[in-house]
């Protein structure tokens, strides 16, 4: 992995569709943007902040999530997440994430990520599945 400077940024956005709502998971719930979908978008933005620094078969994978979903967004809202690399402890990156819709901030928190070699990772998974 190339050196990542603190403050590096990544973004991700999506328009809320029915499949991103609570109703899609259970018909008695309201048609608002679900927390799992917001978290997925936060993870994607954090990935984009770090991926340009990966080398060879390296990628970053999620290791921790600590977020608040602070406001509801309906179908048709455009949600945008900004991710900012905040720290690195020698093994794990902490990325601060902020989610906004067309009107206001809807969520914030941190995402933890670690660098892995895809080849080594897949070899480990194959070995573990044979045991």
Keywords:
131 residues, alpha+beta, five-stranded antiparallel β-sheet, 5 strands
Describe this structure in words.
This protein is of the alpha+beta class. Helices cover 25% and strands 40% of the residues. The chain contains three helices and five strands, in the order βααββββα. It has helices spanning 22-25, 35-50, 118-130; strands at 9-15, 58-69, 78-88, 92-100, 105-117. The protein has a five-stranded antiparallel sheet. Strand 3 and strand 4 (92-100) form a beta hairpin. It is globular. 24% of the residues are buried. The mean pLDDT is 96.
Count of helix runs: 3
Largest sheet: 5 strands, antiparallel
pLDDT averaged over residues: 96
Number of strands: 5
Order of helices and strands: EHHEEEEH
User: Proportion of β residues?
Assistant: 35-45%
* Strand order within the widest beta sheet: 1-3-4-5-2
What is the CA-atom radius of gyration, in angstroms? 16 Å
User: Structural class given helices, strands, pairing?
Assistant: alpha+beta
The span between the termini is: 31 Å
What percent of residues adopt helix (DSSP H or I)?
Answer: 25-40%
The rough form would be described as globular
Q: Which regions contain 5 or more consecutive residues with pLDDT less than 50?
A: none
